[in-house]
Amino acid sequence: MTNTIIIVVAAALIDSAGRTLVQQRPPGKAHAGLWEFPGGKVEPGERPDAALARELAEELGLFVEPGALEPIGFVQAGTPERPMLLLLHACRDWQGEPAALEATALHWDRPEALAALPMPPADYPLAAALARWLAAGMPHDRR
Ligand SMILES: Nc1nc2c([nH]c(=O)n2[C@H]2C[C@H](O)[C@@H](COP(=O)(O)OP(=O)(O)OP(=O)(O)O)O2)c(=O)[nH]1
Cα separation of 101 and 116, whole Å? Predict the structure, then answer.
């Protein structure tokens, strides 16, 4: 029997100084202590953008319009028994002040500096895609 792929949505919140938010995974979870992009698993029947808006509310107390989420890149992760697909989105517009409601700590850093942090393996190619995407100039900047 083949295993169903778990879709995980994640967000690179980008502030006005061009920094991105990462959060530290709490003890007792997979990848505990590592720095990740906020987000989580898409629930059955849920739209990925709605899932990410829900996760940002649950984890950080933010209100985000699903339309404010821009696709950046994706990466395969997990194991053969538990395959995952991580979808990274950029977000520059949100309401509220990020609070570590589930994470151990929050950290803002320039995208090219994120790879110096201990992250889940799948996050290194995502951080690289983010840095390239920002360096290329977002559609937002070209208006
Ligand atoms: N949110 C998030 N999850 C990530 C990232 N990188 C990465 O490998 N993951 C993995 C960790 C988890 O296995 C899964 C997200 O699951 P989750 O955050 O909703 O739930 P969870 O901690 O209970 O996960 P799990 O223990 O069931 O694996 O994706 C990332 O940057 N952000």
Answer: 24
Check if 35 has its Cβ closer than 6 Å to any atom of ligand 1. no
Kindly give the number of the ligand 1 atom that is closest to the alpha carbon of 37: 31
User: For each of the chain's 143 residues, which pLDDT tens digit applies?
Assistant: 578 999 999 999 999 999 999 999 999 999 999 999 999 999 999 999 999 999 999 999 999 999 999 999 999 999 999 999 999 999 999 999 999 999 999 999 999 999 999 999 999 999 999 999 999 985 555 44
Tell me if residue 48 falls in helix, strand or coil.
Answer: helix
Ligand 1 centre distance from Cα of residue 25 (Å) = 9
Residue 31 Cα to ligand 1 middle (Å): 8
10 CB under 6 A from ligand 1? yes
> For the whole model, what pTM was predicted?
0.94
Enter the ipTM. 0.93
Whether the CB-CB separation of 54 and 60 falls below 8 Å is answered with no
Domain residue limits, the chain: 6-135
Residue 125 in contact with ligand 1 by CB distance below 6 A: no
> How do beta strands 83-91 and 6-13 pair?
parallel
CATH topology (fold) of 6-135 = Nucleoside Triphosphate Pyrophosphohydrolase (3.90.79)
